[in-house]
Known about the structure:
InterPro entries: Asp_de-COase-like_dom_sf, Formate_Dh-H_N, Formate_DH_asu, MoPterin_dinucl-bd_dom, Mopterin_OxRdtase, Mopterin_OxRdtase_4Fe-4S_dom, Mopterin_OxRdtase_prok_CS, MopterinOxRdtase_cofactor_BS
Keywords: 4Fe-4S, Iron, Iron-sulfur, Metal-binding, Oxidoreductase
Family: Belongs to the prokaryotic molybdopterin-containing oxidoreductase family.
Strand order of the largest sheet: 7-6-20-19-18-8-9
Oligomer: single chain
Protein name: Formate dehydrogenase subunit alpha
EC number: 1.17.1.9
Amino acid sequence: MSNNERPDTEKEGVAGFMARAKEMASEQTKETANKRVVRPFEHKVSGFMGNAISEGRLFSIADAVGDYQLNKIDVTDTTCEYCAVGCRFDVLTKDGKVLGTRPNHEKSPINGISTCVKGKFAHSYVNSDDRLTQPLVKEADEFREATWDEALDRVVEGLDSIREEHGADALGLVASSKATNEDNYVMQRFAREVIGTNNIDNCNRLCHAATVSGLSSTVGFGAASIGVEALEETDCYLITGSNTTEAHPVIATKIKQNVKDNDAELLVFDPRKIQMAEYADQFSRVEPGYDNTWINGLIRYIIDNDLHDEEFIEERTTGFEQVAETVEKFTPEFVEEKAGIPPEELKHAAETIANADSCVFCWTLGLVEHSHGTENIYAIANLALITGHIGEPKSGVSPFRGQNNVQGGGGDMGPLPNNFPGYQPVTDPENRKKFADAYDMDRGEMPDKEGFRITDMFLAAEQGDIKGMFIQGENSLISEPNIGHAREVLDELDFLAVQDIFLTDTAEFADVVLPATSSLESNGTYTSSTRHVQLVKRAIDPIGNTKPDWKITQELAKRFGYDWNFSHPSEIMEEINDLTPIYGGVTHERLEALGDGGGLQWPVWDEDHPGTPYLYEEQFQTTDGLAHMHPADTVEPSETPDEAYPLVMTSGRVLYQYHTGTMTFREEGDMSYSSKSFVEIHPDTAKEYGVSNGDTLDITSRHGETQSMAEITHRPSPGEIFIPMHYLDGGANNLTKETPLDGPSRSPEYKVTDVRIAVAESDADTPDSTAPSSDSDEQSAKSDD
């Protein structure tokens, strides 16, 4: 597709949106005066946003609300609590109520005047009537309200009794990638210093753990090597396993604008015809589970045709010969047979990448949520390395992160079973000495073996090796693979404490529930996909009797006899930068003094260091400074279709929902678009099975079963279906499997599940009476992130 032929909807979408928003704002001003700034017309705007803006893209409505009288309205600049793009905006509040948000381009360098639908509209959950505002304890299978003293004492009693009888490693702790860096830091300290175990993990295990595993052992850091500049200005993009337009709309806007304005090449490889394919120079439909195959095919073609960067390989890498030998079997014919990529498409993509002056390799969970996810990352890292497209301002690797703080809280801060903060291995005696000394511990008391990953915690609990859990800000019942298995595990635990903002599906199983503050009631920092550490600021006072996560953890530690005496998250960050070299120059005061809200990109080695816009300019973060290529030769996913289960299910997200719906299920606007689960099915497959649009389908895998409503669409291939992962009823994780796991990362295989389908005998349980085709603008909100 030439540049002139690409859909010219961006400026039309912006212009249309802004014109209508201004008109609505004018009408609402007459009615509401100073009472509510954004919320009165928020859902009117959301009602037309799917059609007014291409692929759900939302732009700032700052101009639309600019004429309002903003006196007596409190304005707080903060960082968005949804995905990890790192968008910032002003939050407008009055009398403890969140009225809305508006981007302030002077303090929003990553997103400028833009936000996505959730960043703009999805914040009323904070004031939801069912917020947890008081601790709960369970008696005779019923919850009752309790004082903080009683609830905390019950948690200490529950954890300590298991530790005394079975040892510290019989406990599993789960931190939250939604919480701040400071919250997560004290949580890992609590696990190691207070409980005495490395059994601490977080939801990163369920998403990008394979990315971290693969990149850290290849190039040094398990993070994006680039900054925003590359996403805006590179000459070439390879995007795979990511519906960027829907999962990360602000990043998608930057990519599409570069494609349209500068004729950047865009290559999209995905099992589903996602919307980004409309802008691509080449869209290649991949058979689910065979990413390693087509990436190795690209590498083989580049090497065989002398398109690789020999000088870069010789000077800056090791392992090339072994990789070159491994990829020999991935011929164009083999790639077409297994992955479904025609030879001419493989050839075009390989030559485009190799001949580009710069290239960014972008992916999300479609590449990593596999039983060989780490190998997929080895392969794409090898592709970047053999072409020399890494270590430059406009070239590198860019995994897009899905949770607001999964980069920082989920990894950098060390709530991990194998790493202290800053990716310092727990098995290294010098690291244990360093942290033991800092915590005033006897060095022999610091746990010295790697702990259970969260997926292994659930398997260990099934075997009786984990007796109790403390889960912070994670709805594990829905997010873990195989909901049926997760339910059995949670139900059988001797003790479970949950710390969250709502009584989630997981919290229903708890013995004690502790009410935490939401993002808009918290202070601290988040770290974005591009390694920007940015301030999070409290916009409203904590609701009811809630407490910040870090303060709850500190009060628990005190009951165990440990006095930390942090009075503010800024003091926690001072301890972090003292112990974590990549955060060595990060302080709250310095971030505030920057003034532009953009934060600092780690590594920030000291307070005079400006941060690092892109990694690996001179050397890789390895012991010898070289990138270490690893061969990746696994071909098959863990299961393949057969006569009993002839279809392949893949899973992902929808634009209007966020993870397990804890926040977005309480947003009226979001729920008006996607209140129920559904199953995308190709017209050919629908015809074969006698499925009509809107039918309720019985869907069965080797691991579970569920029902969901059919949406007939050309997005999946024939023989494949797609189901979102957000929902308890009808959601994908009713069908996924808890084993096998990816070897190095222990991540589940969410993206390949063999299933069979049948039209349900009765439509009594049909989620909705009608089901518009997801090929329409309103329904093009699915994501493979």
